[in-house]
Structures are given as structure tokens and as C-alpha cells.
Amino acid sequence: MDKTVADLATAVADIESGIALMVGGFGGSGAPIELIHALIDRFKATGTPGNLTVINNNAGNGRVGIAAMIDAGMVARMICSFPRSADPRAFTEKYLAGEIELELVPQGTLAERIRAGGAGIPAFYTPTSYGTNLADGKPTAEFDGHVYVQERWLKADVALIKAELADPLGNLTYRKAARNFSPLMAAAATTTIVQASRIVELGGIDPEHVVTPGIFVDRIVEVADARQEEALMREGVAYA
Amino acid sequence: MSQKLSNAQIAWRAAQDITDGAYVNLGIGFPEMVAKFQPPGRQAIFHTENGVLNFGEAPADGEEDWDLINAGKKAITLKPGAAFFHHADSFAMVRGGHLDVAILGAYEVAENGDLANWSTGPKGVPAVGGAMDLVHGAKRVAVITDHMTKDGRPKLVKHCTLPLTGVGCVTRVYTSLAVIDIEDARFVLREKLPGLSLTDLQAVTGAELVVTGDIADLNCPEI
């Protein structure tokens, strides 16, 4: 089996409108910029995919990556913990104009909801947000003298992930702190699409070092010269 | 109030209570300053929500690696013995009681330990990040803050008026005037600036300061 696809356009060719799309990364660290931009290219050429629910810790920065998706008009709804950044203009303008929905989720709850989605756990209880307005309307229960908030799993149709190494079976490693949400999202999405800085032969990743096992990965595309969101911003790049 | 501690001095005071080898999360912004003031011979191990343990100072300009950032999205470096992990593990460290101390900023702290530090109200774009998670699980949840708001209102209050971050979560408050523990839903005064009377301190505090023992002088070096 070989999950490698030829290029970025092929990797994102069948992503449909109206789906839930998880995007790995925390700020620019681990953001799969080239996959996102390939999706924007397709939207500009075909009008698809639009009306997306995007799940990411943030809501874009500057005029590249998720911010460029928002600028292009592809995103109807964000599920995130922190829709602010050095340059949050794209999301802020649409949000204040009522053109984009926001589901604000505490960061650890977001991570655990995604983990639960990938692990087949439909709900769990957490101390986070108890007694705050982010727990409004959610069931609570007492365990061992403390009250906890019930949270639901979070799954997606597609995840876009950036990895460091991939092998043809989709076993992945990550680079430094770029790992963040990606291993969780890879498991929680029906179709997980990975851009890897290098695709190595089978056996090229020591099984002891695999972070995301290939069972969670559907497609891989090599992007050897992947750019950093932060660097693109400093260069003033606007993708949308 | 004629005299108060600077932010650096508040951070210095909070740093004196961090033991060698403690696992510590410092909130974004002002609390990050605490790392600078570790007493000689002590090395805390700092945790950042986005999946790093044992990170060090910022790199020199031009030396940034943008895959290596902290929760504030600032570039960091690693110390020997650092570790990477994914977000679910990172927040297991937080909620699971594995951190020794979390040090956070505050808009308001109530005498029962309620904390408001994430939202100033319904205007603009709401953003919570890891604030609501960090107040749960650490063995100590400490706040560093000016004793009053910029317009002179108490930040230590009977009941928070701003949206809560967590209920009954704060265990100690380091302010520009005093060190106060929260015990049995009361502000218990431990230290105050020498020369500041209890009456004057009480006058700028929005709930009763309880005295259960000696009150030490809050002495900080000039920084």
C-alpha cells in the first residue's frame, strides 16, 4: 500500500463544501500552509469547497493560511479557543459583521473533545469551565465531591496535517512543537490528509519514533520546502 | 497610595516561592516575567500548553525557529531534558494535577478564590485560550496582579463582576502591596509592604482581610 499522492491539488481535490475541516497547528507552528493554499486555489477556480466549519486552535493570522481562507469567503464557522493573533483582521472583520460563526472552546477542552472523537468516546466530564458562561446549557455532574461539565466529542470529515517525516503507510513524526493538535486531529477525521516535509521509504522511520501511526492517515503529499506562517507574514504575503 | 511594587518586583516575589525542580506554567504576558527571577540554585521546569516541557529563554533576533514557540506564540529555546507532546497530553498535565504551580494574571479575584482573567465583557471577539483549563489541577494556582485597577478600584473583591475563568480556584495572590492566601473562602493576609498600615491596605481591598498570625514585611529588591 502507498498513501502518497502526486501533488497538493490531488491531495485536496475531493474536499466538499459544507464539511467540518480540522486544521493542525497552533498559531503558525505546525500549520499546513501549502495544503490550505491548495484548497484556496481550488475554491478560486471552482467555488468549492465553501461553507466550511474549520476547527483549529486559532482563527488565522495575517493574510495567509486560515486567515486567507476566511478572506476568500470559504469559512462559515470557526471552532477554536483563541481567535486572536498578531493580525486577526480577517476573522475579526467577518465576526463583527455577523458573517462568520464562532464556537469558543477552552483550549484543553478542544484538545480533549478531538481526542475523544478519535477514540470513540462520545462525551466526557471536565472541571474546565464549570461555573463560567462557557458552560451555559451543558450538563454537569458531581464526582467525588467536585462538579464537572459534560463535553461532547468533536469529529471532522477531513483533517489537514503537517508532519516532518512520513512513510508510504502514513506513519508520521512531527518537528518540535509543531505536533500540538495534529495527532489528535489525524484520529478524529474521516479522511486525514498530510503534507510531510519528507516522505521516506518503508522502514525509514524507527517504529519507536512514530508519533501518529499510519492507521490514522489516508493521504500524504511531500512538501519539501514548506513555509512558515510567521515568515510569510513578515514578508507581507497575502494569499487570498 | 504612595508606594507600591513594580510588576518586576511582584514577579520576583512570586518566584521566591517556586522550589527547585517544580513543574510550573506561567500565563501569557506579565506572568512570563516570573521565569527571570528564579533564586540562584533553583531550576523550575516550565510547561507551555502547546506541548513543551523545560523550555528556556527567547532566542536572539534572527535565530527564531517558528516550530518552537510558547503559548503566547513567541519563539523559545529548549533546555537539556526538554520534551515535546501533543495537546491532549499537555492538558492532562494541567487538569491531571501534575503541575506544581500555575501563575496567572487577573482582572478580579474574589475572596472565595473565584478568578476573572479572560474577558472584560461582551464587546469584541471573545478568546479564552487555555485560561479556563489552567485554573484546574495545578497544586497551587497563584495570581500576580496590581492591587488595584488603573482607575483605582480594588481587584481583590467580595464577588467578581466580570465573566469568571474558574470557581474557587486561586490559592495565593501576589499584589503590588501584599501577599494574600485564600483559605476557607477568605483573604488571609501574609505579607504587606512595610510602612503600609493594615487600615490603608484594607481601604483599597474590596473584601475583608483576615489576620490569623504574624504579618511579614513584603520586601523586594530594587529591580
UniProtKB/TrEMBL annotation, chain A:
SUPFAM superfamilies per the UniProt record, alphabetical: NagB/RpiA/CoA transferase-like (SSF100950)
Pfam families for this protein: CoA_trans (PF01144)
UniProt KW Transferase keyword: yes
InterPro entries according to UniProt: 3-oxoacid_CoA-transf_A, CoA_trans_fam_I, NagB/RpiA_transferase-like
UniProt xrefs under Gene3D superfamilies: Glutaconate Coenzyme A-transferase (3.40.1080.10)
Ribonucleoprotein as UniProt keyword: no
This protein's UniProt keywords: Transferase
Protein name: 3-oxoadipate CoA-transferase subunit A
Taxon lineage: Bacteria, Pseudomonadati, Pseudomonadota, Alphaproteobacteria, Hyphomicrobiales
Gene (UniProt): pcaI
UniProtKB/TrEMBL annotation, chain B:
UniProt cross-references to Gene3D superfamilies, sorted A to Z: Glutaconate Coenzyme A-transferase
Family that this chain belongs to: Belongs to the 3-oxoacid CoA-transferase subunit B family.
Protein name as catalogued: 3-oxoadipate CoA-transferase subunit B
Source organism: Devosia nitrariae
Domain of life per record: Bacteria
InterPro entries: 3-oxoacid_CoA-transf_B, CoA_trans_fam_I, NagB/RpiA_transferase-like
Short name of one Pfam family: CoA_trans
Gene name, Swiss-Prot/TrEMBL: pcaJ
PANTHER family xref list: KETOACID-COENZYME A TRANSFERASE, SUCCINYL-COA:3-KETOACID COENZYME A TRANSFERASE SUBUNIT B-RELATED
Keywords: Transferase
